[in-house]
């Protein structure tokens, strides 16, 4: 590395074939010298694979360094991975394990978390990746605790992030570990982004509950409830409406939806609340009446607990 790396953290951004131009550009913009016209990190680009490195758009990159550079840098960034079902090369995985063992910080942005998981580095640790890959990731890596709400997660020097724009949040978080808040705020202003976003990726998931199930009677009941979420519902009344005992209904409802009745109702009511916040000018009291929450306080608490932002903050971001 250069002489400047004695005083500045050194960083390698690893590029793979079929790379995502956006994901590669995020760490180079945040940590590179162009944005603030001043070098805060000694940044090098590393070829993570042999052969031509091209994107699906025909762009081609020619990194100046090979995997040997990973043995020297303080921070390694894996901005993406092109195939969740493909195991990266053993040479790369061994280099990452060795880097972690000597104390390097390793960052897997979006699907870059898969590379860290394939290396075994996330075993027994918390991690994040894009919420759409939750089922796939947990099926492949049973021993990783996946946080599908977090924008980014750090555990034992391993940092992983959710998809796309969350990569920016994650990189700003890392920048803040080395430099003052004033510098990070200046960087964020130059990039025209927030230096810190409230909430997690759960606020961006369109529908976290199933639309239909394999049980026709439960499906019909779900449709009926969705059309009148403002009404109160009890287990006994709903069980009677489909001619089941309370115990049988509870079991079948959970089998069909993967949730208890209370969890499903809360998720549906919060989904409707999101729609009303985004598409109407209803007051909070009107939204509480339309969604069937017992009080405004309960609604605010449930909303904040689920999405990590207040209803007003969510409306400010998504109101049409």
Q: Which characteristics define this entry?
A:
alpha/beta; two-stranded antiparallel ribbon; 13 helices; 10 strands
Protein architecture, described:
With 320 residues, the chain is α/β, with parallel strands linked by helices. Helix content is 43%, strand content 11%. The protein has helices at 21-31, 90-101, 112-118, 134-140, 166-178, 181-191, 216-226, 235-241, 246-257, 261-279, 284-291, 296-307, 311-318, and strands at 10-15, 42-47, 53-54, 60-61, 75-78, 105-108, 126-127, 145-146, 152-155, 158-161. The longest helix has 19 residues, at 261-279.
Order of helices and strands: EHEEEEHEHEHEEEHHHHHHHHH
Class computed from helices, strands and strand pairing: alpha/beta
Can you tell me the residue ranges where pLDDT is under 50 for at least 5 consecutive residues?
1-6, 199-210
Characterize the biggest β-sheet.
6 strands, mixed
How far do the termini sit from each other?
49 Å
Spatial sequence of strands, sheet with the most strands: 2-1-5-6-10-9
Q: How many extended strands? A: 10
Q: What is the percentage of strand-forming residues? A: 5-15%
Tell me, briefly, the overall form. elongated
Helix content: 40-55%
Rounded to an integer, what's the Rg over CA atoms? 23 Å
On the 0 to 100 scale, the average pLDDT is: 87
Number of helices: 13
């Amino acid at each position: 590395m250069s002489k400047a790396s004695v005083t500045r953290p050194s960083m390698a951004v690893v590029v793979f074939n079929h790379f995502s131009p956006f994901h590669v550009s995020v760490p180079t913009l945040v940590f590179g010298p162009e944005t603030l016209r001043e070098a805060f990190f000694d940044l090098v680009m590393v070829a993570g694979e042999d052969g031509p490195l091209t994107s699906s758009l025909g762009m081609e990159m020619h990194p100046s360094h090979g995997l040997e550079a990973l043995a020297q840098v303080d921070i390694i960034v894996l901005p993406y991975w092109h195939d969740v079902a493909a195991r990266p090369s053993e040479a790369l995985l061994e280099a990452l394990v060795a880097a972690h063992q000597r104390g390097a910080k390793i960052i897997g942005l979006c699907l870059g978390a898969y590379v860290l998981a394939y290396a075994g580095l996330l075993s027994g640790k918390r991690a994040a990746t894009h919420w759409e890959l939750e089922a796939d990731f947990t099926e492949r890596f049973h021993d990783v605790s996946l946080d599908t709400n977090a924008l980014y997660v750090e555990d034992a020097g391993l940092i992983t992030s959710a998809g796309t724009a969350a990569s920016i949040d994650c990189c700003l978080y890392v920048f803040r570990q080395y430099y003052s808040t004033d510098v990070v705020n200046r960087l964020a202003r130059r990039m025209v982004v927030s230096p810190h976003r409230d909430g997690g990726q759960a606020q961006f998931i369109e529908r976290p509950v199933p639309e239909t199930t394999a049980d026709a009677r439960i499906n019909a009941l779900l449709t009926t409830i969705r059309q009148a979420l403002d009404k109160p519902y009890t287990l006994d009344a709903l069980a009677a409406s489909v001619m089941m005992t309370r115990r049988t209904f509870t079991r079948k409802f959970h089998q069909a939806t993967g949730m208890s009745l209370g969890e499903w109702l809360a998720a549906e009511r919060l989904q409707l609340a999101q729609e009303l916040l985004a598409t109407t000018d209803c007051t909070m009291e009107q939204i509480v009446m339309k969604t069937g929450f017992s009080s405004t306080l309960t609604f605010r608490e449930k909303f904040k607990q689920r999405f990590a932002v207040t209803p007003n903050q969510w409306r400010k971001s998504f109101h049409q």
